[in-house]
Design goal:
Blueprint: H1 3-26, H2 32-55, H3 61-87, H4 94-118
Helix pairs in contact: 1-2, 1-4, 2-3, 3-4
């Protein structure tokens, strides 16, 4: 797979991830705690996708590294909010666990991308 194809497939994967997060959040019962968690999860999860798209439009290697660093931070935060949903029993479901596992994969991919961009 070449670099352009990889970027496009990753972009589609991230879009699907955000859409799956939205669907998950729509099914979470409302409470004060879930409202806060849902808002934070959707903000960080959508930020991963938005900043990845921005990184791919970077005008320099330094700008790419900066944007990918934001992606890594937001991916880590997204993983954390999914972890909170699971361990607080706000929404400990197979779909939440699946998305948590996907968030870990995304985080690994983005951290590796950032490390490669440093060289």
């Amino acid at each position: 797979m070449d670099k352009i194809q990889f970027r496009e497939e990753l972009k589609l994967r991230l879009r699907k991830f955000v859409l799956d997060l939205i669907k998950l959040c729509q099914g979470i019962p409302y409470s004060n705690e879930s409202k806060i968690t849902i808002n934070q999860l959707l903000r960080s999860g959508s930020s991963v996708y938005a900043n990845y798209r921005a990184a791919n439009r970077a005008r320099s290697k330094a700008e790419f590294f900066s944007k990918i660093s934001i992606v890594v931070e937001e991916a880590d935060e997204t993983e954390m909010w999914l972890d909170i949903l699971i361990h607080s029993d706000i929404h400990n479901t197979p779909e939440t666990i699946r998305l948590h596992n996907e968030s870990l994969e995304i985080l690994k991919i983005m951290a590796t991308t950032r490390k490669s961009a440093q060289k």
